[in-house]
Amino acid sequence: MRLSLEPRARPAQAMVWLSPVLAAVLSVIGITILFAVLGRDPVQALHTLFVAPLASLDGLSELGLKATPLLLCAVGIAIGVRADVWNIGAEGQFTVGAIVGSGVALAYGGAGHWWVIPALLLAGVVGGMAWAAIPALLRTRFNAHEILTTLMLAYVSIQLLGYLVHGPWKDPEGYSFPQTKQFEADAMLPVLLADTRLHIGALFALLSVPLGSILLGRTLMGFRIRTVGAAPAAARYAGFSRNAIVWFCLLLSGGLAGLAGICEIAGGNGQLTPVISPGYGFAAIIVAFLGRLNPVGILFASLLMALLYLGGEGLQVTMQLPIAVTGTIQGMLLFFLLAADVLINYRVRVRVPQAAGTTQHA
Amino acid sequence: MHETEIVVAIAVATLRAATPLMLAGFGELITERSGVLNLGVEGMMLVGAAFGFIGTVATGSLLAGFIIAMIAGALLALVFGGLTLTLMANQVATGLALTIFGVGFSALVGVKWVGTPLAGLATAIWPHLSAASPIVQQLMLLDPVVWIAVLVPFAAHWFIYRTRAGLILRAVGESHDVAHALGYSVLRIRYLAVLFGGAMSGLAGAYLSLSYSPMWAENMVAGRGWIALALVVFSTWKPLWLALGALLFGLVTIAQFQAEAFGLAVSPNLLAMLPYLATVVVLVLISRDATRLKLNAPAALGRPFHATA
């Protein structure tokens, strides 16, 4: 028996949405094998990963908390990728958004101004946009590809954060820990549900779904974005400015990532530390693809990915597994997704040699 | 005498810092010359670093460690090849997946080895190193892997421009349809180039964990894989330029130690930004001339190939 791929006459729309399901199923099988190899009970591991976090209100609110930055970053990344603009340094814009927003919170918090929270959120967005403006300028003015520049700037931003919390912004009363002062209460985001940590950042994230969908599907800018990505020659012929779209996509995704960053701090610990993200900006790339570069799909994908983070923490506590398990599973999920995606444009053809001439489609 | 020592120390440190960039960059250069863009260098280097370290501790042999690292890097590259070449998945997305997976997987398998002490390559080869004079000590730090990295650009130049295999490689990378029509197996050649790239990344990673700083730590490659990728663009896919770029970056990387040696009080965080900022600057300088970049880049870079006849 021989397997071969043959192109479909047109992409199979059903496979676009079946492929993530197939990838999830394959990942569960992969996780089972991974844990068997590690000598751990796969059933217990799967339960800890996928069931235990959802069994309580507390778990569900933590899920929303972790999905918030993933969703915000992924919507921006996805809109960019639709236009063939690859912002893979959302982690950097997230970090700079957190830094700039925290600067506002630390400077103006505690005086009872009503505008502190709006101001720090705005500062987060502006910080993220400013950080993303650098690769946009380098791309449009100097032709330097954003894949590498956004990523390099992510590394720079993490060092910038380290510099600030070890140096000028270090809390003098922090027992020499590298961290800033604690935000005052009036600079902390309001909580949505009493007795949980779920903050209003989750609302911004939810709002990004319809807004992203409307932008992509119902506006001229969205049409331009999709055209530049799908048919660059047609877009050029129509006179769509490639540079304007690069700017738009990078500023948009940078702003969303910056918002995610400041929400993570002002809705969470309320202070900057050397590590403020378990790689949300990078995981959001997986979320964007898993969600089919579509805001509604991304909502579900961000919940699944948040579940992996929560479950990974659970594995660390109950089975003493390193937190790196999460990254391994995330990477595996993306592998399976990319493999399953081949079925969108190709079908598998099975040839049975002993019965030449008879072929069947799968 | 003192000045000679400083000059030798800087030269040695530069070469050592350039070695992983040279090795991984060269592997990626060959991969890209075949028309495949593998953004997973960072992930393959990390897996190489982890498996090289574990392999050495487990077998007690550094050579075995390096070989295991190369196999590990090549196996991860095989996953990339399977997805992008056989299943025609998007190369950019798959490369990113490879890096995300490599970061997590290397941390997962390496977790038990964090903090395990290991004698580095130089100490293993020259056990009486500490008794030698400072300059000799420095020179002895140039271990065989560094020498391989020094020879690699010349070997690569010869291979790409002077051999039949190099010509075929270039043909596949420039126009897979023409190469296919001429009867060359595009996929087989690309698989070989991808596997070679993976093995070189694995070697580069193992150099970091077995020689440069003999230990295993999570994420210890710290973006060098991405810098190597940028260097390939900088080199306009020419091995000798790649070597020059790697040396330049070696010099920038060790700026931190130089600053300390000269008593400059600059935050280590700010100095650690330098290689990344330098990468951006170099990319800007080289990309500014869009025509030149386009003329030099393999024409089929990143495009999937599906034989229709």
Description:
With 362 residues, chain A is mostly helical. Chain A has a domain at 65-290. Helices cover 68% and strands 4% of the residues of chain A. Chain A is built from 14 helices and three strands. Chain A has helices spanning 13-38, 42-51, 57-82, 90-108, 116-142, 146-166, 201-218, 220-230, 232-237, 242-266, 280-290, 295-319, 324-340, 342-345; strands at 2-7, 346-351, 359-361. A three-stranded antiparallel β-sheet of chain A has the order 1-2-3. Chain B has 309 residues and is an all-alpha fold. Chain B has one domain (2-296): Orthogonal Bundle (ABC transporter involved in vitamin B12 uptake, BtuC). In chain B, α1 (2-33) packs antiparallel against α10 (186-212) and α3 packs antiparallel against α10. Chain B is globular and about 65 Å long. The model of chain B has no long low-confidence stretch (mean pLDDT 90). Classes of the chains: A mainly alpha (362), B mainly alpha (309). The interface between A and B is large, with 46 and 48 residues.
Write the layout of secondary structure elements.
The complex is a heterodimer of chains A (362) and B (309).
Chain A: E1 2-7, H1 13-38, H2 42-51, H3 57-82, H4 90-108, H5 116-142, H6 146-166, H7 201-218, H8 220-230, H9 232-237, H10 242-266, H11 280-290, H12 295-319, H13 324-340, H14 342-345, E2 346-351, E3 359-361
Antiparallel strand pairs in A: 1-2, 2-3
Chain B: H1 2-33, H2 41-59, H3 62-86, H4 91-110, H5 121-125, H6 134-140, H7 144-162, H8 164-174, H9 176-181, H10 186-212, H11 224-234, H12 239-253, H13 255-261, H14 268-272, H15 274-287, H16 290-296
